[in-house]
């Protein structure tokens, strides 16, 4: 099964992208194929002009179409998700996430906006017809450290949430493959963000 890692940070280096690729590495270790799209690497003018026929945007959209699941990451910008991520989501077809599982990740400067994924991004993913949006994972900058010497250092609480999120995603993928349309959605009461 194919998993797309969609990065929504305009920055490089990027904490949220590092977290995303950490999740991708874990999925690779479990034998899943992953592909990457970084919204910041797509042609800016084509994104801003919503140029649906641009070749690079079409190639990125094809990776979305081929994916069984999308892990999407974003920094919190002004209490919501990033603008560059929105420009990419805007050029997807209205049902562009139909049949797909989505795991949202975000990093933010503080815990104040830890619900941004749920009140801002989740409705957009739902409007794109995502089959199942897994509980989001949110980390503050202090919980994600990176150094040349030691690489990525993730707070134990977030590391645990990532392990749970990956387990939830992989079990959901198996359920999706085995049950098709009888896939059970997660109840709203089971949704939770973490920091
Ligand atoms: C323009 C801008 C707006 C931001 N707005 C918020 C915000 O509203 N709430 C918050 O918690 N952090 C905010 N931050 C901090 C970033 O979300 C945080 O540093 C994040 O980890 C950056 O992720 P990145 O390195 O992947 O881009 C903002 C940062 C920038 C540059």
From TrEMBL:
It comes from the Bacteria. Pfam families: FMN_red. The keyword Transferase does not apply. Residues 1-140 form the NADPH-dependent FMN reductase-like domain. The keyword Oxidoreductase applies. GO terms for biological process: alkanesulfonate catabolic process. Keywords: Flavoprotein, FMN, Oxidoreductase. One of its GO terms (molecular function) is FMN reductase [NAD(P)H] activity. Belongs to the SsuE family. This is NAD(P)H-dependent FMN reductase. It comes from Undibacterium terreum. The lineage of its organism: Bacteria, Pseudomonadati, Pseudomonadota, Betaproteobacteria, Burkholderiales.
């Amino acid at each position: 099964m194919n998993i797309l890692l969609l990065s929504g940070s305009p920055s490089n280096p990027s904490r949220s992208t590092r977290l995303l690729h950490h999740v991708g590495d874990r999925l690779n270790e479990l034998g899943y194929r992953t592909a990457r799209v970084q919204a910041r690497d797509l042609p800016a003018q084509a994104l801003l002009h919503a140029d649906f026929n641009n070749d690079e945007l079409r190639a990125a959209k094809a990776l979305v179409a081929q994916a069984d699941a999308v892990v999407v990451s974003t920094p919190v910008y002004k209490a919501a998700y990033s603008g560059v991520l929105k420009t990419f989501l805007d050029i997807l077809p209205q049902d562009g996430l139909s049949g797909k599982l989505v795991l949202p990740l975000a990093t933010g400067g503080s815990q104040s906006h830890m619900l941004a994924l749920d009140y801002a991004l989740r409705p957009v993913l739902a409007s794109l017809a995502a089959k199942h949006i897994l509980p989001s994972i949110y980390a503050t900058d202090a919980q994600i450290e990176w150094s040349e010497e030691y690489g990525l250092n993730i707070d134990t609480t977030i590391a645990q949430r990532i392990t749970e999120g990956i387990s939830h995603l992989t079990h959901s993928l198996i359920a999706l493959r085995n049950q098709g349309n009888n896939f059970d959605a997660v109840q709203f009461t089971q949704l939770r963000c973490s920091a």
